[in-house]
Design a protein that fits this description.
- This protein is of the alpha/beta class.
- 34% of the residues lie in helices and 25% in strands.
- Strands 1, 2, 3, 4, 5, 6, 7, 8 and 9 form a 9-stranded mixed β-sheet that branches.
- Helix 3 links the parallel strand 1 and strand 2.
- Helix 1 crosses helix 8, helix 6 packs antiparallel against helix 10 and helix 8 packs antiparallel against helix 10.
């Protein structure tokens, strides 16, 4: 069975997860030949589906979490449904573009890629991207954050997290590779935004279930020696992608 690590914090996910950069979408879309139908797999809060709906005639967006879909962006040409990535009811040869944002590391790769081959049109584009661990522009604050990520809750990450740390390099890719540039997401945050984002982490939710306390609370408290609640600081997320032509 697929892991559902995000239903519990679905509302936070919709509010605090970072938004993918416009440059990423622009690059992907330059490779697409037709714009009739797109499938956004593991759509979560519909962030990618929302963007694609302004370009494609129809967007089909799937997820295993009803709570995530309940918080998703709505549009007349977005069709949401519950489905596993590895097995859908879509007809064969349906999609011009298939996307997966920050989720492919949870999939059964072999079964999922078989499904991609089945539902993609000839010469369709497949793109899967993710973003790594953030950095904070203050050296002391960033050191505290890295300790929180690696030491305090490191053991509470599922094993699949390593694919993120490896920037998807070890994930198989049975398509004709298109070389992709690196992207980044840069934000000016206050402590409230950082706290909200950290509470979307599956590792944090796992920690809470085991220990009945939230480790984010003490971490944010430690940052108050550096920042006031109203202070603004910069955070950066590295973004990486695997993209190719389905043949």
């Amino acid at each position: 069975m697929p892991k559902d690590n995000f239903s519990t914090q679905a509302a936070l996910y919709a509010k605090f997860r970072p938004k993918y950069p416009a440059e990423l979408y622009d690059f992907v879309l330059t490779k697409v030949k037709n714009f009739e139908a797109a499938w956004d797999c593991a759509t979560g809060n519909g962030q990618v589906a929302s963007h694609l709906s302004t370009i494609f005639q129809e967007v089909f967006a799937t997820d295993i979490s009803q709570k995530q879909l309940d918080n998703a962006h709505q549009a007349d040409n977005i069709h949401y449904s519950i489905a596993q990535a590895e097995k859908t009811e879509f007809p064969a040869n349906t999609f011009d573009l298939i996307t997966v944002g920050q989720a492919i590391h949870w999939f059964d790769f072999e079964c999922f890629f078989q499904e991609v081959h089945r539902v993609a049109k000839p010469e369709a584009i497949f793109a899967a991207w993710g973003y790594g661990t953030l950095t904070i522009d203050n050296e002391k604050a960033n050191a505290l954050f890295q300790d929180f990520y690696q030491e305090q809750i490191g053991e509470y990450w599922d094993a699949e997290r390593r694919f993120i740390d490896e920037e998807y390099r070890s994930i198989p890719f049975p398509f004709e590779m298109i070389e992709s540039p690196k992207f980044a997401m840069n934000y000016q945050w206050m402590l409230a935004e950082l706290e909200g984002y950290l509470n979307t982490w599956s590792s944090v939710q796992k920690y809470i279930k085991i220990h009945h306390e939230n480790p984010v609370d003490s971490f944010i408290e430690s940052l108050k020696a550096i920042y006031k609640s109203s202070d603004i600081f910069r955070v950066n997320f590295p973004v990486f992608m695997k993209m190719g032509i389905v043949k």
